[in-house]
Design brief:
The protein is of the alpha+beta class. The chain is about 25% helix and about 30% strand. The protein contains 9 helices and 18 strands. A hairpin with a 2-residue loop joins strand 8 and strand 9.
C-alpha cells in the first residue's frame, strides 16, 4: 500500500472533516470575481460637471478608467487623469463606491462582464486656469465639456448618470463616502430622496450689490437667508422637480429681518434679506420640502456664478452679526411640517 506524504495525509485528513471547511483552492474559487475602476468628479466654478467625449462610444463619461493589477484605486484615478487630461493631481477623498451588477445592459456577451466595483473620487472645483491647462491625448479622448448636473441623463449611460449625480450629492452632503448599488445610494439622504439637481438650476449671474435695493429698480423677487440657531439656513426643495431655492420671507416665522443685498437682472432686482428663524408655520405648502443646510450647501446647489462668493461672504457677515455659530457641514435635514426653533 503506498505511503502518504505528510502533505497528502494532511489534505486527506482535512477532506474528511465535516462542516463548511474548504481548501484554499476551493475557497478561492468560491469568491466572486469583479472588475475594479476609478473615476473622478470635477466641477467648474459654476457647479457644472466635467465629462469627456471618447472615440469608442457615443455617450459621455467622467474621466477615469480601469484599475490595473496591483494598483490602488486612488493611484489609478490620478494616473487616468494624467493620461486622459494631462493634469497631475492626487484625489484622496472618495465620494462614492458603486457596485455594478453583472447583468448590466450594454456589455457584449463575449466580454463576459463579471460586475464591477467603481470608486468615485472628488476632483474638486477647477478654476479657469486649471481647465485651460488640460491637454488631450492624440487618441481616445476627443473633447471635454462642463455640463449642468441635470443634463447628465441625456448625455451618459443611465447607470453612469445616476452614479455621477449620487456622488455630487454626497459631495454636497459632506458626510463621507456614499455606498451605491447600480448608482443608487443604499442609505439615501434627503437630497437623494428629493432628487435634488435632477432639473436645471436657474442661473443668477448678475453682480452682487450689498444693501437695500435702490428705489429706481423694480424688485423682481424677494428671498431670504433665514438662520436657525445653529447657523444653518432654511432651504426649499420642490418635491416635483428637485429644484432648490431660498424661501420667501413669508415661509417662516422670523425676527431681526434686514436687507442683505441684491442682484440686478434684466427684468429687475433679485433681492435678499436676512433674518433669525424662530419657527415654521403649520399648513406650509406641501409642494415643497423644508431643509436646514449650511450657506455653502445652498451656494453649491445654485448657479450664481462668481458673484456667489460675494453673496456667501455677506451671508456669513450677517450670521456673525446675529451672534450665531459657524455651522458644521452635515447632510441637509428635512424639517417636519411644524417646528419651533427658538
Amino acid at each position: 500500500m503506498p505511503q502518504l506524504t505528510d502533505q497528502s495525509a494532511t489534505d486527506q485528513h482535512e477532506r474528511e472533516r465535516t462542516g463548511t471547511w474548504m481548501t484554499p483552492a476551493e475557497y478561492g474559487a468560491s469568491r466572486a470575481a469583479v472588475w475594479t475602476a476609478a473615476v473622478v468628479l470635477v466641477t467648474d466654478t459654476r457647479g457644472r460637471i466635467l465629462v469627456q467625449s471618447v472615440d469608442y462610444r457615443a455617450d459621455r463619461l467622467l474621466p477615469g478608467g480601469a484599475v490595473d493589477a496591483g494598483e490602488a484605486p486612488s493611484a489609478a484615478a490620478a494616473r487616468e487623469l494624467r493620461e486622459e487630461l494631462g493634469v497631475d493631481g492626487r484625489y484622496p477623498r472618495g465620494l462614492a463606491v458603486d457596485w455594478i451588477p453583472a447583468d448590466t445592459p450594454g456589455f457584449p456577451p463575449e466580454m463576459r462582464f463579471p460586475g464591477e466595483i467603481l470608486h468615485v473620487y472628488d476632483g474638486g472645483t477647477w478654476p479657469p486656469d486649471r481647465i485651460e491647462a488640460v491637454r488631450l491625448p492624440a487618441q481616445e479622448i476627443t473633447g471635454i465639456h462642463f455640463v449642468e448636473p441635470a443634463d447628465l441623463p441625456a448625455l451618459m449611460d443611465p447607470g453612469d448618470a445616476r452614479r455621477a449625480l449620487s456622488a455630487l450629492r454626497a459631495r454636497v452632503n459632506g458626510s463621507g463616502t456614499a455606498l451605491l448599488e447600480d448608482g443608487r445610494p443604499t442609505a439615501p439622504t434627503a437630497l437623494d430622496r428629493l432628487g435634488v439637481l435632477r432639473t436645471r438650476r436657474i442661473p443668477q449671474h448678475g453682480a452682487w450689490h450689498p444693501g437695500p435695493v435702490p428705489e429706481r429698480l423694480p424688485v423682481r423677487d424677494l428671498s431670504a437667508w433665514v438662520f436657525a440657531p445653529d447657523g444653518r439656513v432654511l432651504l426649499l426643495i420642490s418635491r416635483a422637480t428637485g429644484a432648490a431655492h431660498l424661501p420667501p420671507p413669508t415661509a417662516a416665522t422670523t425676527e431681526d429681518a434686514v436687507p442683505l443685498g441684491y442682484r440686478h437682472g434684466e427684468q429687475g432686482a433679485h433681492a435678499r434679506t436676512t433674518a433669525r428663524l424662530t419657527g415654521l408655520p403649520p399648513g406650509a405648502d406641501p409642494e415643497y420640502a423644508r431643509l436646514l443646510a449650511t450657506p455653502e450647501q445652498v451656494r453649491e446647489l445654485s448657479d450664481w456664478g462668481r458673484a456667489g462668493d460675494d453673496e456667501l461672504a455677506a451671508v456669513h457677515s450677517a450670521r456673525a452679526r446675529l451672534g450665531l455659530p459657524v455651522p458644521a457641514r452635515t447632510p441637509p435635514m428635512e424639517l417636519p411640517g411644524e417646528a419651533a426653533l427658538r
